Amino acid sequence: MMFGSDWPVCTLAASCTDVVTYTQALTTTLSKTEQSALWSTAAARIYRMPTDQPTP
Q1: Where does the pLDDT of residue 44 fall: very low under 50, low under 70, confident under 90, or very high at 90 and above?
Q2: Which residues does 38 contact at the CB level (< 8 Å), separation at least 6?
Q3: Is 31 exposed, middle or buried (0-12, 13-18, 19+ CB in 10 A)?
Q4: Which of 20, 27, 42, 46 could form a disulfide with 2 if both were Cys (CB 3.0 to 4.6 A apart)?
Q5: Nearest CA among 37, 32, 49, 54 for reference residue 3
């Protein structure tokens, strides 16, 4: 599972900030690994994005 929204349509009912805040509140019982997957690692895997950050 990964986070996504129907922005800008969701703004008819709530702000984008509210959508993220509500999602965070609903996922507090997930482990840190599960939360990380929801917010980033699942998308990085699906979209084949590099997960390592180059050193500036």
Answers
A1: confident
A2: 1, 2, 3, 27, 30
A3: exposed
A4: 42
A5: 37
